[in-house]
Amino acid sequence: MRNTSTGWLKLQSTNPLEHPIIEPNYMSTDLDVWEFRESVKLSREIFAQHAFDTFRGREVQPGSQIQSDKEIDAFVRQKADSAYHPSCTCKMGQPSDPMAVVDPDTRVLGVENLRVVDASIMPSVVSGNLNAPTIMIAEKAADIIKGLPPLRDHNVPSVPTPHSGDPAVSSHPAYDSILVISNPTDQPLTPQK
C-alpha cells in the first residue's frame, strides 16, 4: 500500500533526552481507508474459497461481526499502524524548501556536523521491508562523507510497475527486458527482448 496520509514529528524541547512528539496520522485520508477496507474485503473473499475449507477457522480480526463499510472503516482507523517501519520524517531538499530537513548530501540544514542517514530521509514509503533501502542510503551517504565520486551511470532503464488494465505500462518494451545489475564492460546497457 502506498499510503497518502502524512504525519508529523517535532521536538518537545531543546533537551535531546526528552522524547519527541509523534503524530503518525495513520488513515487520515479517505483513499488510505478505502484501500485498507477493500483489502479486508478481498482477504475475506480469498479465504472463503473452497480450497481453504479444511484450514479456515473463525475470523480473528476484524471479526465476522464487522461487516459494513462503516464498521470496517472504524476498525481500520483504530488498528492500523506502521508495523514499526516509520519513515519519511526528514524530507531531503534544498535550503530554500521550508519543509526540508536534510540536503542531498544528508546534512541537516542549519546545523553543522550533523547528518541523518536512515529511513527518515526516504521521500515515500517503499513497498517492502525498509532494511535493504536503508542499507543503500547508508552506503551512498558513506561514499558522500568519504568524498568518493558518484558511481557512473550504466544507463540501465527503469521498468515501470505493471498495473492491471493499463496497456501503456504492460506493453512498455522494458517490461519484457532482463535488466543487468552489473556491467563489467564500459559499454552502455540496453534492454534485450
Automatic annotation (TrEMBL):
Family per similarity comment: Belongs to the GMC oxidoreductase family.
One Pfam family of this chain: GMC_oxred_C
Boundaries of every Glucose-methanol-choline oxidoreductase C-terminal domain copy: 4-138
Protein name, per record: Glucose-methanol-choline oxidoreductase C-terminal domain-containing protein
PANTHER family associated with the record: CHOLINE DEHYDROGENASE, MITOCHONDRIAL, GLUCOSE-METHANOL-CHOLINE GMC OXIDOREDUCTASE
Membrane-spanning residues: none
Gene Ontology CC terms: mitochondrial inner membrane
GO molecular function, one term: flavin adenine dinucleotide binding
Domain of life: Eukaryota
